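Support request from a user on the community tier.

User writes: "When I paste my structure tokens into the form, the page sometimes reloads and wipes my input. The last time it worked, I copied everything first. Here is what I submitted, just in case something in the input itself triggers the reload:"
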């Protein structure tokens, strides 16, 4: 039986697959952080949903990466899990800075 991780490694040699995978990286990262934050708070999806006044299925969609949360939703999740929301912009590896003066 072939493991998905083995297939992924093989497919990463295909430039189209790699580009599509890289394009989804941020979404997967946010989903993983949501799962980690909820788990750290010791909450089920249903419990978190109740705390932020939504449905368990919406939490599942957020955690699967199928729905991108708004900043307001992230703030609600932070409050409900006893976390602090921190959003930042970080330069990508090898990216050139393009500074311009404020207007």
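"...and here is what came back when it finally went through:"
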């Amino acid at each position: 039986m072939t493991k998905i991780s083995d297939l992924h490694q093989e497919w990463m040699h295909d430039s189209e697959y790699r580009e599509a995978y890289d394009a989804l990286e941020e979404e997967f990262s946010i989903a993983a952080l949501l799962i980690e934050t909820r788990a750290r708070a010791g909450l089920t999806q249903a419990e978190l949903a109740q705390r932020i006044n939504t449905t368990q299925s919406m939490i599942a969609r957020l955690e699967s990466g199928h729905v991108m949360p708004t900043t307001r939703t992230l703030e609600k999740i932070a409050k409900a899990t006893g976390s602090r929301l921190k959003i930042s912009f970080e330069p990508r590896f090898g990216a050139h800075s393009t500074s311009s003066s404020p207007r």
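Agent notes: The reload is a front-end session timeout and is unrelated to the input. The longest helix spans residues 25-40. Residues 8 and 17 are 9 Å apart (CA to CA). Escalated to web team.
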